[in-house]
């Protein structure tokens, strides 16, 4: 099965892979009270079929490094753990560990990394730990990246106390106002996409431009140039996000309101994943 991402893991202290694999175990039915206000069945008790999915832990067995040129992505190196379990041999011919797990291989990978490099984890699933009658594992790659560029940069005049729009401010203590920025991005981890919102300082940090500057050039040709440039810079970029997931009546889907994020450094990420493989 291939599902849509509904939430994201909280974790900025170290690099984390943002996906997992699940196995369909069966079907059943549930009854629930419809709580979406835009639904014609709001407040009513409904019955729906649901899928039961088992999600046993994944095993990180290696990493695969890609570079990119005008013809697309291509593999430049692979690195594997020193030990494999018995089930993996049911799926693939096990690689030669003398060539794929040596310290020299790690040094060679670090030398050939560049700004286009992309690192993906190679994971082994464990269907033997589920209720399905299957032992042969799957091999999957997992990563996360910005899948869609910036379409627009929104600014609004806000209360400096509650940060709401001036017209919607109800805090009663407004002394002065300031302009704030909003940027929406689509994040993809390879299994699905989710809309994210960067506001205020987080939006400024994302594009490296102060809100005041955007307000000044908003109605000039320079704004379109900056929008195109920043969109190009962000598209395809690996990123770790931290935020709150909520359902949006406007888009009729779940979104993440970002309260922190981190750009992934390829060299640091590779070193951390290598250490994890050695454990």
Q: How would you describe what is shown here?
A:
The longest helix is centred in the C-terminal third of the chain and has 14 residues, at 221-234. Helix content is 20%, strand content 37%. Residues 1-5 have low confidence and may be disordered. It has helices spanning 97-100, 103-112, 201-207, 211-217, 221-234, 266-278, and strands at residues 23-33, 45-54, 59-69, 72-80, 118-124, 139-142, 145-148, 153-159, 177-188, 193-199, 239-248, 253-263. Among the domains are: 59-143 and 268-278, Ribosomal Protein L3, Chain: B, domain 2 (2-Layer Sandwich), CATH 3.30.1430; 146-153 and 183-264, OB fold (Dihydrolipoamide Acetyltransferase, E2P). The chain is of the alpha+beta class and 279 residues long.
Outline of the structure:
With 279 residues, this protein is of the alpha+beta class.
């Amino acid at each position: 099965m291939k599902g849509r991402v509904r939430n994201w893991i909280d974790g900025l202290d170290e690099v984390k892979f943002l996906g997992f694999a699940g196995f369909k175990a069966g079907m059943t039915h549930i009854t629930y009270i419809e709580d979406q206000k835009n639904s014609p069945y709001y407040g009513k008790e409904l019955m729906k079929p649901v899928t039961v999915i088992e999600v046993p832990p994944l095993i990180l067995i290696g990493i695969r490094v890609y570079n990119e040129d005008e013809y697309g992505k291509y593999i430049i190196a692979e690195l594997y753990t020193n030990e494999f379990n018995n089930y993996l041999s049911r799926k693939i011919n096990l690689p030669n560990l003398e060539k794929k797990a040596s310290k020299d291989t790690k040094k060679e990978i670090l030398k050939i990394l560049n700004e286009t490099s992309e690192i993906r984890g190679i994971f082994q699933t464990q269907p033997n730990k589920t209720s399905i009658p299957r032992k042969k594992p799957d091999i999957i790659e997992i990563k996360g990246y910005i899948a869609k560029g910036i379409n627009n940069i929104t600014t609004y005049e806000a209360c400096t106390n509650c940060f709401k729009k001036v017209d919607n401010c109800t805090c009663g203590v407004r002394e002065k106002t300031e302009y704030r920025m909003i940027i929406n991005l689509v994040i993809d981890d390879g299994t699905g996409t989710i809309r994210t919102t960067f506001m205020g300082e987080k939006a400024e940090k994302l594009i490296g431009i102060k809100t005041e500057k955007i307000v000044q050039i908003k109605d000039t040709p320079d704004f379109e140039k900056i929008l195109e440039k920043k969109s190009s810079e962000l598209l395809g970029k690996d990123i770790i996000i931290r935020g709150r997931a909520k359902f949006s009546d406007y888009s009729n889907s779940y979104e993440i309101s970002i309260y922190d994020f981190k750009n992934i450094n390829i060299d640091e990420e590779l070193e951390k994943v290598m250490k994890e493989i050695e454990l």
